Amino acid sequence: MDIPIRGFVMASDGGGSSHTHKLYITSWDGRPVHVHPFSGVTSFDAGHNHHYAGCTEPAPSGVQHVHGYFAETSFDDGHTHSIRGTTGPSVPIPGGGHIHYFEGYTTINGRIPHAHRYSGKTGNEIGS
Asked: Residue 119 forms beta bridges with which residues?
C-alpha cells in the first residue's frame, strides 16, 4: 500500500565537505500534519533530576494518531540522558485541538549508572 507524502528537504551547509539534510513533511495521505511541544522534569534519582524539552515528530491531522518523540535532557551531575518513545492517542481539549500523554524511562548514564522516570502531556497541536 502506497501512502502519498508531500514535503520538502532542506540542506544545511556544515562547512567544508560535510552537510546535512532535514525532511519537512507537510501532508500525509492528503492530510496536513502537525506537531506538539513537550517539556518536563525527570524523577529525582541518584541525587538529582533533569529537565527536557522538544517537539514531537509530525503526524496527520484530523484522524486518530500517535507521535514519536525524542529529546536530550539537561546536563546535570556531569551527564545527560536521552528520552525516546511514542505518545498515547490524541485527547481532545476544550476549545479545540488535542494533546497526548507520554511516559517512560531515560537511557542509563552517570558515574553511578542510573535512569530516571518521566511523564507528562504535550502542548496543543501546532501546524507543521
From this structure: 103
Q: Determine how β-strand 126-127 pairs with β-strand 31-35.
A: antiparallel
| Residue 52, CA distances (Å) to 67, 75, 84, 127 in order | 17, 10, 11, 22
Taking CA atoms, 40 is separated from 6, 14, 71, 79, 115, in Å, by 32, 31, 11, 17, 15
Q: Measured between alpha carbons, how far is residue 59 from residues 11, 100, 125 in Å?
A: 22, 12, 10
Compute how many other C-beta atoms are within 10 angstroms of the C-beta atom of residue 26: 13
Q: Which residues contact 47 (CB under 8 A, 6 or more apart)?
A: 77
Query: Residue 38 phi/psi, 5° resolution?
Result: -150, 155
Give the C-alpha distances (Å, rounded to integers) separating 66 from 51, 52, 104: 23, 20, 15
Residues (pLDDT < 50) of the chain are none
The pTM for the full model equals: 0.78
